[in-house]
């Protein structure tokens, strides 16, 4: 009888102790919340939050600043950017052969500072299976594309499924620059050169074009459309890393035309950067480039 009473009071005591401990812990957390400066509290909660992962796909053929600007905007819509580089076969099936093969396009996309991960051989359209893979394996929250329509050969929208799933976001396409446009400029160069060399320019056009002659003819010899990309000082700082060389930095200088910026340029810049601590790049102006290559 006595031992039964003791057991009961021990149980009551234990319950009281546990309840007390829970109350003290709750009180401490509340005090921490109230006492912590707002920004530190926000940082703490943000760290706990899962990063927003966004996916952008594309051909990235003859990569240009319009593509880089698209990647910059896509990255700004999340915390991590995963980029799908479309396979050669898929590009051929959907819009004609690319100028640059997949491995070169991969080098270019990988070199962009806003890109966190790259998926090789991505499909041209967001299929049901691929979308599932993006969500389940790559933890993608949103699929991003420029605000130009992306229509498949059968007339349907390549991003229809993502839109229906409510997981699609759009960025503003950079007007006045495109791979087709660049091919057009190249053709104009070829035509000028072939005329000055008194050769049959149409045979050269055939040799270089991939079905883009019509666009060149439409624009005439006056050149291509004017780019609407505004390189304000704020935007230029975003594209650069904003860092100057340290006091003892070994500064490497490299210059060039960097015309039709390609995987070879990326590689030489990477090697040059490895020779020192800071890489300064000089870009020849159009006049200098023309002197070197008078027919363009
Ligand atoms: N993009 C852009 N501005 C451009 C060109 C492309 O914002 N001037 C965007 C596209 O909307 C897309 C991504 O970059 O989200 C990849 O584009 P890509 O598949 O390479 O092809 P295109 O849109 O056909 O671009 P281009 O004509 O230059 O090949």
Automatic annotation (TrEMBL):
<feature type="compositionally biased region" description="Polar residues">
    <location>
        <begin position="201"/>
        <end position="211"/>
    </location>
</feature>
<keyword id="KW-0443">Lipid metabolism</keyword>
<keyword id="KW-0812">Transmembrane</keyword>
<dbReference type="GO" id="GO:0004306">
    <property type="term" value="F:ethanolamine-phosphate cytidylyltransferase activity"/>
</dbReference>
<dbReference type="InterPro" id="IPR014729">
    <property type="entry name" value="Rossmann-like_a/b/a_fold"/>
</dbReference>
<comment type="pathway">
    <text>Phospholipid metabolism; phosphatidylethanolamine biosynthesis; phosphatidylethanolamine from ethanolamine: step 2/3.</text>
</comment>
<keyword id="KW-0472">Membrane</keyword>
<feature type="region of interest" description="Disordered">
    <location>
        <begin position="200"/>
        <end position="224"/>
    </location>
</feature>
<dbReference type="InterPro" id="IPR044608">
    <property type="entry name" value="Ect1/PCYT2"/>
</dbReference>
<feature type="domain" description="Cytidyltransferase-like">
    <location>
        <begin position="55"/>
        <end position="184"/>
    </location>
</feature>
<keyword id="KW-1208">Phospholipid metabolism</keyword>
<keyword id="KW-0548">Nucleotidyltransferase</keyword>
<dbReference type="GO" id="GO:0006646">
    <property type="term" value="P:phosphatidylethanolamine biosynthetic process"/>
</dbReference>
<dbReference type="InterPro" id="IPR004821">
    <property type="entry name" value="Cyt_trans-like"/>
</dbReference>
<comment type="similarity">
    <text>Belongs to the cytidylyltransferase family.</text>
</comment>
<protein>
    <recommendedName>
        <fullName>ethanolamine-phosphate cytidylyltransferase</fullName>
        <ecNumber>2.7.7.14</ecNumber>
    </recommendedName>
</protein>
<keyword id="KW-1133">Transmembrane helix</keyword>
<keyword id="KW-0808">Transferase</keyword>
<dbReference type="Pfam" id="PF01467">
    <property type="entry name" value="CTP_transf_like"/>
</dbReference>
<keyword id="KW-0594">Phospholipid biosynthesis</keyword>
<feature type="domain" description="Cytidyltransferase-like">
    <location>
        <begin position="253"/>
        <end position="290"/>
    </location>
</feature>
<comment type="pathway">
    <text>Lipid metabolism.</text>
</comment>
<keyword id="KW-0444">Lipid biosynthesis</keyword>
<feature type="transmembrane region" description="Helical">
    <location>
        <begin position="12"/>
        <end position="36"/>
    </location>
</feature>
<dbReference type="InterPro" id="IPR041723">
    <property type="entry name" value="CCT"/>
</dbReference>
């Amino acid at each position: 009888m006595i031992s039964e009473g003791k057991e009961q009071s021990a149980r009551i005591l234990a319950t009281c102790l546990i309840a007390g401990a829970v109350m003290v812990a709750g009180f401490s957390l509340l005090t921490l919340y109230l006492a912590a400066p707002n920004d530190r509290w926000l940082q703490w909660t943000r760290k706990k939050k899962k990063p927003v992962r966004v996916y952008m796909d594309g051909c990235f053929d003859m990569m240009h600043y319009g593509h880089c600007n698209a990647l910059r905007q896509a990255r700004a819509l999340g915390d991590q950017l995963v980029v799908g580089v479309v396979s050669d076969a898929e590009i051929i099936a959907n819009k004609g052969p690319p100028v640059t093969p997949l491995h070169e396009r991969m080098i270019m996309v990988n070199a962009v500072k806003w890109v966190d991960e790259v998926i090789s051989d991505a499909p041209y359209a967001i299929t049901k299976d691929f979308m599932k893979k993006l969500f389940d394996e790559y933890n993608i929250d949103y699929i991003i594309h420029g605000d130009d329509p992306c229509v498949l050969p059968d007339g349907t929208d390549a991003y229809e499924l993502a839109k229906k799933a409510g997981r699609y976001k759009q960025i503003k396409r950079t007007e006045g620059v495109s791979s087709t446009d660049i091919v057009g400029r190249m053709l104009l160069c070829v035509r000028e050169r072939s005329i000055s060399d008194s050769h049959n320019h149409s045979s050269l056009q055939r040799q270089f074009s991939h079905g883009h002659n019509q666009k060149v003819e439409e624009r005439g010899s006056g050149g291509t459309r004017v780019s609407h990309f505004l390189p304000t000082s704020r935007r230029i700082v975003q594209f650069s890393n904003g860092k100057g060389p340290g006091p003892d930095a070994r500064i490497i200088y490299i210059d060039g035309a960097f015309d039709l910026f390609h995987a070879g340029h990326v590689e030489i810049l990477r090697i040059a950067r490895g020779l020192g601590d800071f890489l300064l790049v000089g870009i020849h102006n159009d006049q200098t480039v023309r002197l070197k290559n008078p027919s363009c």
